[in-house]
Every structure is written in C-alpha cells, then in structure tokens.
User: Fold these one by one.
Assistant:
Number 1:
Amino acid sequence: MADKAARAAAAHGSSASLPLTELPVRGRVDCTGFIESVTYQPANEQAHFSAIVVDRIAHRGDTGPLTRLRVIWLGRRKVPGIEPGTVLRLEGMVTPKDGMPTMFNPRYEILSRQEHQ
C-alpha cells in the first residue's frame, strides 16, 4: 500500500514540489509527504491541530533516518482527512520551531489515503 501511495504522490506532485530532504530553513515551499502522526489538543488548551509529515513511510527493518516536517493548523481541533498514512501536498512558509521545520496553516491537498486493515 505504501508503494501505491508513493506512486500517487509522484503522479500528483508538481515539478516545483520539493522533497522534504531539501526544505530550506525558512521560506515558502511546495512539498509532498506522508502523515506519520497527528496530535489532538485537550479541550482546556488553545485550539490547534498538528501533524508530523515524513518523506517516506518507515517499514520494519528500515534503519535510514526520516526527514520530518511539523504542520500546525491554528484555531482547529481537527482537520478532516488528515490522519496517519495520508499523502499530502503542502504549500506554505517553513520556519524552524523547537529544532524542527514547521509550517503553520498551510494550503494542502490530500493525494491518497492508505486503507485501514
């Protein structure tokens, strides 16, 4: 299934889409990646929804490092369709936050989703 998602990402990605490994420290980018995890905030905290996007899906026995991008949607507790395994195309400003490249309120396009088993 990961291969199917990777093919979908490649088919929908534009020539301007950067691999996550080539993200600048700061600046506007268009990139594609897989949602690795999402974080929901408790009701008593300020509303925001975050996800970690990786350059590839890690498989058992895979020892190579993953490139990660934190994506944060401010003012929302959930973003429909954003869940682990989803392939996204993102467009927005990248800035470092807590040592990780971070994108706030990006434009996004869902390219594919993995089927739940």
Number 2:
Amino acid sequence: MTSPVILQAAGGNSLYSTIIPMVLIMIVFYFFMIRPQVKKAKDHKKLVEGLGIGDKIVTTAGIHGKIVGSNDTTFLIEVEGGTKIRFDKSAVSLDATKAATTAATPKA
C-alpha cells in the first residue's frame, strides 16, 4: 500500500516547493552579503576621494604616513624619517587626520 505522504510529495506541487526556497535564499544572500559589500565599497571610494595633500593616513598594511603627492591611482606618502613610499589609493584604510580629531573632541 502506498503512503499518502509519498503520493503528495510526488504531486505537481514540487515545482513551487523547489523555487520558493531558492528565491528566499537569494533574497537573504543579497541583503546579508551583497548589499553590505556595495555600501562598504562606496564608503571607501568616498573616503579616498576626500583625501588630499597633508592628510595623515593608515594603509591596509598598517603603515602610517602623510600624503605629500597624488596622481590618478596612487598616493605618495611620507613616513618616519622622511622616507617616501608610493601606494595605490585602494590600499588606504583610514584617514588618521579625521580619526585623531574625533578622538580628541570630548563627548558631552
């Protein structure tokens, strides 16, 4: 004798029971993975565009320096002892000038 559960699972309803979970997984994936990465990329682009000569920065490698030159894709930064290093703009992780001023202001 065939069980009614097996017959019900083999019915025409299987298309919806497959597509709906896949669509829900894609929606969750978008909101938890893709959207935050796009926002982070926009914020980084805005940070790099706002930097100029004289700003202090920290690179992704942890090198602290001051911007002394710039072109389309790179920054020339001066580190301790007057050494100058050229870094790609995408390697900047923090604007230390703004971070220092926000840390120095007392909260009321």
Number 3:
Amino acid sequence: MLPEDVRALALMLPETVAGAHRGNPDFRVGGRVFATLWVEEDRVVLRLAPADQAELCEAEPDLFTPLDGAWGRRGWTNLDLDPCEEETLRAALLAAWRFTAPAILRAAYA
C-alpha cells in the first residue's frame, strides 16, 4: 500500500478530517487523532483498542507492532505499508476509527 491509499481510505470514514501531527499527515474524528502517516517511513501509526492491537499483532506480526513504551501500551500501533494488503489496511483503519470516534458517531454508523 502507498501513502495515497492511506489518505484515500481514511478520508472515506465518516466525519474524518485530515490534519498534521509533528509534521506528519494525520486523520482525526471528533477532534482526536486515530491515524498518523509517516510517509518517508512507509508506515501508519494507528490508535487501537488494546484487544484489537493484541489480535492484529499476533495475527500479522510482520505488519503490526506496538509502539515502544507507554504509547504502545495505550494501543498505538505501527503498520508497515509496503507488504500490507488493502483489506488489512481498511480493517485496521476502521478499528482505529471505531476506537477513537465519539460514541454517538459510532452508534450512528454501527
């Protein structure tokens, strides 16, 4: 997958807006970041529920790795874009969106 794919897929999610975090493009819902794109490193960092993070990292350890330290323990997870398939990226972005979106918005799109 390419950074352009991340942008296109993330912006398809309801009420997602593009922003920037520390010079990197990010994607927000309800004013909160759910994904940050690291273009030069061909990766996206996702905010996942701990259970989703554990499941994805166990199922595809070559793609998903928790960030080091407290950030990783809070669910922030690297996704390597180069070997990633579109279906995997879509599912991971949706999981991050669901974890981050306000409850009323999640309910509207359940």
